[in-house]
Write a sequence for this structure.
């Protein structure tokens, strides 16, 4: 990736293609896009099963997640929930079941095709307390202090400026609110050539950062009580490794201490922000 703009454009193009396909097509074609785009089922090895979760809408599940954030998010009836990178609406519709008729759920996605598909799904289901907005996670189209809970599923690894993303999450959460986010992180270094492959960026691997850095960014944004709710190792099949690495490089990777993990992380926005930068008249936050 030469720049943040190029990275975003890549993701927008790739997920625009994904938006036009079914879950079955996405899991049978690499990265959920056209056949042969990167030679293996990158998303398939990360996806969790939703079928037994109340509120699940199969038509909205494109098989792109790496966790089940709604299962850990402690969403209550009447809450306002924001889902970042809402896709075709999968986690939005699950969260809707939790907030009930008196709550609401806002999905944000910067791919036009995803927003169109999500709105069509909501219209078909006659859901009136969900809303889908086109926008960038680094500059969300919502006012401050609006959400009781923010959720996201395997999306923030695709955001180039994670500091800005978590600052925005902090801005939109009400004082005393919280987030629960599933994402891909690393422990140890992935092979250098993976970082150079655009398709693995869009497939969530080369866009991931170190687990420790990820948690530090959350703390720097002002959140408290940062906890890992779930930590699952992602095992990459040999046939997928062979698409990118030589036999010698595969052996080196397997013998290294590198670990690709799906984590679900939660943190609270303090009821009162004690940071001096947020005193009245100071705009640093």
């Amino acid at each position: 990736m030469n720049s943040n703009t190029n990275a975003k454009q890549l993701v927008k193009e790739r997920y625009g293609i994904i938006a036009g396909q079914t879950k079955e097509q996405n899991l049978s074609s690499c990265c959920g896009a056209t056949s042969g785009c990167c030679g293996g089922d990158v998303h398939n090895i990360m996806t969790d099963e939703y079928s037994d979760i109340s509120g699940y809408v199969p038509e909205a599940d494109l098989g792109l997640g790496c966790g089940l954030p709604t299962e850990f998010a402690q969403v209550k009836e009447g809450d306002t929930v924001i889902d970042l990178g809402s896709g075709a609406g999968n986690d939005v519709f699950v969260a809707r079941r939790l907030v009930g008729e008196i709550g609401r759920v806002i999905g944000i996605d910067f791919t036009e095709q995803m927003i169109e598909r999500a709105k069509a799904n909501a219209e078909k289901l006659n859901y009136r307390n969900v809303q889908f907005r086109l926008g960038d996670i680094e500059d969300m189209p919502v006012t401050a202090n609006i959400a009781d809970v923010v959720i996201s599923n395997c999306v923030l690894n695709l955001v180039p400026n994670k500091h800005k993303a978590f600052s925005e999450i902090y801005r939109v959460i009400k004082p005393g609110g919280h987030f629960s986010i599933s994402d891909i992180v690393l422990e140890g270094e992935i092979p250098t050539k993976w970082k150079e492959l655009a398709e693995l960026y869009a497939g969530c691997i080369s866009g991931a950062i170190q687990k420790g850095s990820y948690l530090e960014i959350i703390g720097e944004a002002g959140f408290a009580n940062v906890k890992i709710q779930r930590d699952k190792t992602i095992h990459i099949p040999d046939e997928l490794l062979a698409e990118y690495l030589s036999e010698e490089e595969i052996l080196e990777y397997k013998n290294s201490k590198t670990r690709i993990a799906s984590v679900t992380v939660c943190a609270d926005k303090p009821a009162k922000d004690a940071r001096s930068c947020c005193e009245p008249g100071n705009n640093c936050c």
